[in-house]
Every structure is written in C-alpha cells, then in structure tokens.
Structure prediction request, 701 residues.
Amino acid sequence: MTTSSSHSVPALDSRLVTELKGVGARLAERLERLGIISVQDLLFHLPQRYQDRTRLSAIGALQSGTQAVIVGEIGLAQIRYGRRRSLLCLVSDGTGKLTLRFFHFGGAQQRALAAGCRILCFGEVRAGPAGMEMVHPEYQLLDPDEEPLLEQSLTPIYPTTEGLGQLRLRKLNLAALELLAGGDGLDDYLPAPVRIKLDFPPLDEVLRSLHCPSPGLSLDVLGRPDYPPRRRLVFEELLAHHLSLRLLRRRFTDSLAPALTPTGHLSQPFLQQLKFSLTHAQQRVAAELAQDLAAEHPMHRLVQGDVGSGKTVVAALAALQAIEAGFQVTIMAPTELLAEQHFNCFQAWFQPLAIECAWLTGKLKAKARRETLAAISGGEAQLLVGTHAVFQEDVSFARLGLVVVDEQHRFGVHQRLALRNKGVSEGVRPHQMVMTATPIPRTLAMAAYADLDTSTIDELPPGRQPIETAIVSDRRREEVIERIARACAAGQQAYWVCPLIDESEALQCRAAAATAETLTEALPEVRIGLVHGRMKKSERDYTMAAFKAGDIDLLVATTVIEVGVDVPNASLMIVDNAERLGLAQLHQLRGRVGRGERQSGCVLLYRSPLSANARSRLQVLRASNDGFEIARRDLELRGPGEVLGTRQTGAMQFRIADIMRDQALFPQVEAVAEEMLQQWPEQVPLLVRRWVSGGVHYADV
Ligand code: ADP
Ligand code: MG
Prediction:
C-alpha cells in the first residue's frame, strides 16, 4: 500500500536515483537527460510500448512485420559479399527455415554462429530475398538439451537516451518497484473518493502493472486505451496539466491590478464616430472585458473570433477604458505589417479623441526610438502599438494598465506567460487580453489555455457573403489570370499570395517579385503592386496605402499579409502552392477577402500531382467557411503540434496521454480538477509536480 507522509523514511519523490544500487554519477547524468532525478521520476518514466517475448513461435508460422521469439538449429552460416558484406545464418526448427542477417559482426561472433548450434532469437520478421529473415536479432546460443528461458510477462520498452540501454532501465525500474513494494512511500495524490468513483486501481498497483505486466497479459489488452492502469495514468496526466494551468491562473488572479473604472468620456464619442454599430457578439464580449477591467485583479482573457469577426474594435473599447482611467495601453502584433496597420487604424480612431499614440518596432531608427521610449516612460504616450519590440528590457511604462496581444497563435505559450511580467510595478500587474482568429478547439483549449478566461465573438458583421473557394491545378493558371483581368476590369481588387516554397524569407520574396513580373506582362491593363517582408517600411506603406485607396488593383504578396490585413474592397484571393500551407493559415489568407458586401472568391492553386491527403485538406476549405470547423478538421489531419504551432508544443509534451486519442476524458478531467481545487487543494501542487516537468518553470514565470 502507499503510505502517508507520517512514514519515517523519506517518500520516493525526495529520494534520488543515485540511492539505487549501481547508479553512479555518469548514469545519473544520463537519467537526468530523461528528466529522471528522483526514484519517483523513474517510476513515472513509463514504457512507450511492449514486446512479447513470452511465447515461442514456429518458424513455419512467422509473419512478416511481426516480432517473434524462435528456437532452431543453424544449418548453414556464411559470409555473403554483395553490395554490403553480411553474415547469413540459416536456421530451421522442423516447421520451416529462417535467415538471420548480420551486417556488423566480429570474428568471434562469426565463429560462434557455426552450423549445428542451437540458437534462441528475438527480432522483427521480414520478407527477404529467400524467404523470411531477421536482421540483427537479439540471440543467445543454447546447449543441445537446454530449455529456452522465455520471459514470463511482456517486455516494456522505454523512451531512452544515448548510452542508456533498455535492460538498464528495466532493472532500475524493477529496483524502484521493489522499494515501492517494501512499503517505501509514494503518496497517491488522487484522493481516494475520486479514485474509487472513477473505478481506478491504486497507484502502486498501476505502476507495477505498467512496468511489469502480469504474466499472460497480451499486447492487445495492454495497448487498449481503456486498460484500467493506463486509463488511470492518462487521466492523471491530463489532470495534472490542466491543474498546472489553473494554478498559474490563480496565482495571477490573486495578484493586484489597477481597477479601470470606465467614465465613457472617450468611449461614447468613439462609438458615435464609428461608421457601423457593433454586432451583438461584439457588444457581449466588450461588456465581458469591461467588467474584468473594472476589477482590481488582473484580467487574462482570450478573445476568439473568426477571421473578420471584428476583434479590433473590441480591443479599442478595452483600450479606451484603460485610457479613460488614466492608464497606458500597449498592443502587440506578430508582424511589422500588422503592427503598422493597427497603428494606422488606432491613430485614425484615437486622434480625434486627442489620445497620444506611439509606435515601436525593431526597425525604428535610434533617435526615433529614444523619443518614443521617453514618451512611454514619461507617460505622454497613452497607446503604444508595436511588434514584440514592445517587450524589450529598455521599454518601461509610466502606468501600464492593459496589454493586448493580437493573433496570439503566433506566439508560444511560454512567450505569453513571460509577457505577464511586463509592466509589473509594486506587485500591481496590468490586465491582459489576447486575441486569436485561430479558433482553439475545446479539447486543446483545455490543455493549453486553461489559464485564460475565454470570450468568443461568434457572429460576423451583417451583409458578409460566404467566400466561394475553388481548388485549381496550376496547369490552369491562364484561366485564373483571366479571372483576375475580369474582376479588376469590374472594379474589384485581388491578392495573389506566394507562400513559402523554400524556408528562406529571401527566396520567398524573390518568388513573389518574379510572380509580380510575370503577372505584369500577362495583365498590362491591371495596376499591380508588390509587398514582401524585405522591403523598406516606407515602400511597403506606400503600396499598402495605394491598395487600400484603390490605386492598385492586384497586390502580389508573400504570406506577410496573412494576418489582419484589412482592405474591404478586395474580393478575390489567389493562393499559389496552396497545398504547402496549413488549413488555419489558408483560412487566414482567405479571410483577407469577403470583408465587404461583395461576393468574394478564393482560388487555391496547387502543383500537380496532388496527394490524396493534400486534396482532402484543401477540400475541407472548400466545404467550410467556419474557422472552428476547419480547426477541428486540421487537428484531426495534422495533430495538435502543428495546429498550435511547434513553439507551443514544448508545453504539451505528454508521457502517456494523447490529446486526440484521449479527448473523451476531458469533461471528466475538468470536473475532477474543480473538485480537487475545492476539496483537496493541498494535493494539487504535488500532483502537478509529479507530472509536469516544466512545472517549476511555469511557477517561475
Ligand atoms: P478581425 O476579427 O479579423 O481582426 P477586424 O477587426 O479586422 O477583424 O474587422 C474586419 C472588418 O470588419 C474591418 O473592416 C472592420 O472595420 C469591420 N467591422 C468590424 N465590426 C463591424 C461591424 N459591427 N459592422 C460592420 N463592419 C465591422
Ligand atoms: Mg485582426
């Protein structure tokens, strides 16, 4: 049984692996690479999979692609000189013949594997040039009448690291299990009533059955997601991750923030000057934000809204509330282009209200930068828009009240958490609002965003027409070019996007430039502009402004225009090499059109031939305009790492759980998390520390 903290020897979570027999400094260092420091860590280092070495197979019944144990007699052993020198041994057991193939072998090994020897082998069977074979099997020579010693239970295979063999890990875990069986403590942090209600076996039993499965258990049973020991640990791991974010959230909500009391003296005239009225969804979300901002604890709210749902104006209202209360606001965008656009937009909205707006990016000249920094630290600048340059060390705010992060999905979880320390003075933190157009499916939200409250703008402004999407082979490029000619002749505007073909930005820009040239030749009567990330800001500004003003008909661009760019008269989007982009990214690009009242279209051009998977991904876009639906499908087709962006996956490394496979557990995980926070709060940090290796890191943020 597990023991309580009253036990006299220290619990296994505070006993180091070096206490185990045979673990010296070198081994300890290798174990640490796997995150194993305490005996507890070792026990929670779980097998990835298992091998079945419990049964002997008849050679005649071997199937390619399976793993098997066989015993037989070596009939012939010879070196074959082909493309690669190899040692071949033909083994038979009366039911059939099998070839053992070794590419690396020493003289002694070669002499030992002689004709007439009995041999026990374990390995993967594959079809070779002359029947079934095993390449580099594990083997052991047997005496003529020696009984082969088979494993009693399935063999665990652990995630490992260089210089640390499976056998070593297995032995270490057996030693750890012995300590556990001897009564050395490993507290079960899942409260007994919860465990019993969910029908989970006790912790020590669970660990034993995963590290050292009972004899007779088959691979089938053990691999099942509903195998009770596995299910319990999967549940526990998801619970621990969820709780770690909840704890984090509590730490921040317990701290202090300026209560931003709205006066309306800025927001009222702002709303009056606005050319449209807010949708119900915008009003609802704005009200949620207003309420949070008026509280004296920091807001941490995620505002989700599909592309074009109108998040910017909602952010503007939140900013005005902070400025009305005498505080500064900063808005951070992921790209220069988007930051520029926000700056222009806010400047146009706020200047009539006599609000001082400033602008900061990495590319600012030294003098301008110095002046801007002075205005921020002096408090004259009330709104600062910028890229992540806004969060550099030397930027200090006089009275920062609100941080807005746009298009959050471009930043990682860690970056987001780090941002929370910006503008903290005397323990008072600014409020934080993050906006994303990449809808996070609920399952992922629970795992990656549980530290945030969420508001959703689930309504598009009135009059928007769904965008018609076509999937077209680039063999029909001519037709697409004609379509642009017709659209532009009718007074519409279009984008032509050249996404990343090569990793390098330089090449991407060159591809866009080349495309612009070709299109200029093909479309002499169309006014064509080019923007990419390597242009001077002034040049790009000029082109964007010209496009916005309708002086350019066709804008050729790299994916710099992916997020946020807003030109309502543009109604045709062409995406070159669309098969190379993720669904969320394509949805973002497509969202550049369909912003006005005109029927808009999107053409996804692909290089033939298109793989079946790529086709079904593009078809998702044709079938749906709904960002949530697209994100859900994207998650199915590509998995969470891709959807959240690779930078975010660091925080989502699971040992045994799998977000997709195990999502059915989520509602229960959430309910139990709530229960634990209420009734067993002291268990919560312990459970988190046991499972979440980055736990310490999070706690330090
Ligand atoms: P996103 O949510 O993608 O950031 P934006 O904030 O850029 O969307 O808004 C998209 C476009 O819709 C902008 O041109 C904006 O002015 C316009 N817009 C926003 N709200 C409304 C509304 N309630 N009615 C009409 N147009 C709106
Ligand atoms: Mg936006």
About this structure: The two ends are 37 Å apart (CA to CA). Confidence is low (pLDDT under 50) at residues 1-8, 643-651, 695-701.
